[in-house]
Amino acid sequence: MKKVFDDAAAAISDIKDGATIMFGGFGLCGIPENLIAALKKKDVKQLTCISNNAGVDDFGLGLLLKTKQIKKMMSSYVGENAEFERQLLSGELEVDLIPQGTLATRIQMAGMGIPAFFTPAGYGTEVAEGKEVRVFNNKHYLMEYALHADYAFVKAWKGDAMGNLVFNKTTRNFSTSMAKAGNITIAEVEELVEPGELDPDHINVAGIYVHRIFQGSNYEKRIERRTVKIEGP
């Protein structure tokens, strides 16, 4: 199976309107910048996007929100995007806000082949509406379903032609689980190497989960919010 593609445009050529896509990374750290840019250029519409965040107004998923290519967002943190807020309040965007631990576990369960699980997170709030509730050891739990997607987009530090991936520190958040939960997983990497060059002990996602891979370029690697220490007088 040939997994290596020339670029992001070639890797997403079959994606059509209405697709459900997971986007790896954490905040703006480790997001698939090339794949997001290719989606914007391809101008596919009515997307359901699963990500821990919605980017910022001019970067990340914020680019797709600005062009109104996203129909629904499934996220846990959306506080840095003014356009997201505007579309939510105006009713232009469907939003499913999910507790972050629940979101992560739903994705993990999809990759593990477990259809559902119980969690106490969200009980007694709007999150619980319409969900099965069971009691274990005198505590209430909600049943949550595993979360699958048509495609999973992830960005790794290194990868090989077999699809094996190595992530760098925080960039692996959500990405390693999402890579296992998409029907088709597409990975962009900073460095694409030949099979056998990666140390097996350092591989975070095995190539069996990755269907397409390409070497990305021109990464901005923005910081969502820079915090520095202010020195005293």
UniProtKB/TrEMBL annotation:
Coiled coil: none
Keywords: Transferase
TM helices/strands, residue ranges: none
Xref: Gene3D superfamilies: Glutaconate Coenzyme A-transferase
InterPro entries: 3-oxoacid_CoA-transf_A (IPR012792), CoA_trans_fam_I (IPR004165), CoA_transf_BS (IPR004163), NagB/RpiA_transferase-like (IPR037171)
Record SUPFAM superfamilies: NagB/RpiA/CoA transferase-like
GO molecular function: succinyl-CoA:3-oxo-acid CoA-transferase activity
Top-level taxon of the source organism: Bacteria
Pfam families in UniProt: CoA_trans
PROSITE patterns linked: COA_TRANSF_1 (PS01273)
PANTHER family: KETOACID-COENZYME A TRANSFERASE, SUCCINYL-COA:3-KETOACID-COENZYME A TRANSFERASE
Protein's name in the database: 3-oxoacid CoA-transferase subunit A
